[in-house]
Design goal:
Bound molecules: (2S)-2-hydroxy-2-methyl-3-oxobutanoic acid
Number of strands: 10
Strand content: 15-25%
Structural class: alpha/beta
Largest sheet: 10 strands, mixed
Radius of gyration: 22 Å
Distance between the termini: 78 Å
């Protein structure tokens, strides 16, 4: 009898154990989070911030390690989505730019002079993400069977060049510019008369060192400053021609294996990471709210005045006024038309409506 009870109890314990596991799944010792640039970039810092928060708030149950420098995809940044889908990568803090070859909707914010063509470019970006257009983008991402967890930000992309200044599209004639291997970039820079060169980020710096290209475009706080871009380029064209939102995402099976409670915690951490990431990206370019936020969480970075740092390091910053923007806007009209039909008229109109609602 005792033997029978003991056996029954043992079975019961086994069943209960299996039930909890079925609900929550087995957790891996380490989850790999992919990031294309280095750990010193705003992007890398945001990824580490997120991973640290998750570890702390799950009391170590979920241990995410950030793999920077595109190392999980051997440098080939446009294969990140595929690797996340097939489970080689567990999490990604990914750029729309690197996924847009596969998810056409993600070209939306790469439409030239589209988001920044608003009185407050940051408000316009936030309105898209929290509006109808953002919802449509998330649906497009989740159709590829990855879990969308939250937004973050690489930033508005500014041009840096070794030869300058650039004031009109004519000044860009024949310039060799490094771009990522995503088709809309080739179209934009070809329309402006330049000579775009598709080079993975992992090889781009060598290209700058060797002078293979005359310039490149990337966000100032997130990439250009940490990279010390002034080492090779003397001009920064502050034109905000497009913005690069980041997508915090997870492999679908990895996500499903987490308990409901842990999923909630991850989403909370993602919301905090979004605030941190946006503040890093916008610091020195907005009305001061990014600085105030970073102060409130005790994470003010060393550099708070990006224009001063660029100039102190010998760069000429060419700020584009409305008149100059108009020249570049007109020169890229054909790109907006072509890519609006690729992205989908409905999505582009939804984004326009979202942005208009905060004008
Ligand atoms: O390749 C780039 O320029 C970078 C680092 O910004 C992205 O991955 C989109």
């Amino acid at each position: 009898m005792t033997h029978f009870i003991r056996k029954a109890l043992l079975s019961l314990v086994c069943v209960l154990f299996m039930a909890t596991q079925a609900q929550a799944g087995f957790y891996k010792k380490e989850y790999k989070l992919s990031v294309v640039p280095g750990l010193g970039s705003g992007w890398g810092m945001s990824a580490v911030y997120f991973a640290d928060l998750v570890k702390e708030k799950t009391q170590g149950r979920i241990n995410i390690k950030v793999y920077a420098g595109a190392q999980l995809m051997a440098g080939k940044q446009t294969s990140e989505l595929l690797l996340l889908r097939n489970g080689s990568i567990d999490f990604a803090l990914a750029s729309t730019i690197n996924w847009s070859p596969q998810v056409k909707e993600l070209n939306l914010t790469a439409l030239p002079f589209f988001v920044a063509n608003n009185p407050d470019r940051y408000k316009a970006m936030d309105a898209i993400e929290s509006g109808k257009a953002g919802k449509m983008m998330i649906e497009a991402i989740e159709k590829t069977k990855v879990k969308f967890i939250g937004w973050a930000e690489n930033g508005f992309r500014e041009l840096t060049v070794s030869k300058g200044p650039i004031n009109t599209p004519d000044d860009m004639k024949g310039m060799k510019l490094r771009v990522c291997g995503t088709p809309i970039f080739a179209d934009i820079f070809t329309a402006l008369g330049a000579n775009p060169q598709a080079i993975n980020w992992s090889e781009a710096v060598t290209g700058f060192q060797q002078g293979i290209v005359d310039g490149q475009e990337n966000p100032t706080n997130g990439i250009n400053i940490p990279l010390k871009v002034w080492t090779w380029h003397k001009y920064l064209i502050d034109w905000h021609y497009m913005i690069d939102p980041l997508l915090l995402t997870a492999n679908q099976n990895v996500w499903k294996n987490f308990s409901k409670e842990d999923q909630e915690i991850i989403l909370e951490c993602a919301a905090l990471a979004e605030k941190y990431s946006k503040a890093l990206s916008r610091l020195g370019f907005d009305d001061g709210s990014s600085l105030a936020y970073l102060q409130s969480i005790g994470k003010v970075p060393e550099i708070t005045d990006p224009y001063k740092v660029l100039e102190d390091n010998g760069m000429s910053v060419i700020r584009f006024d409305e008149q100059k923007i108009k020249l570049f806007y007109d020169a890229t009209e054909s790109v907006r038309i072509k890519w609006t039909s690729q992205i989908g008229e409905d999505l582009v109109s939804a984004a326009q409506a979202d942005m208009n609602s905060v004008k």
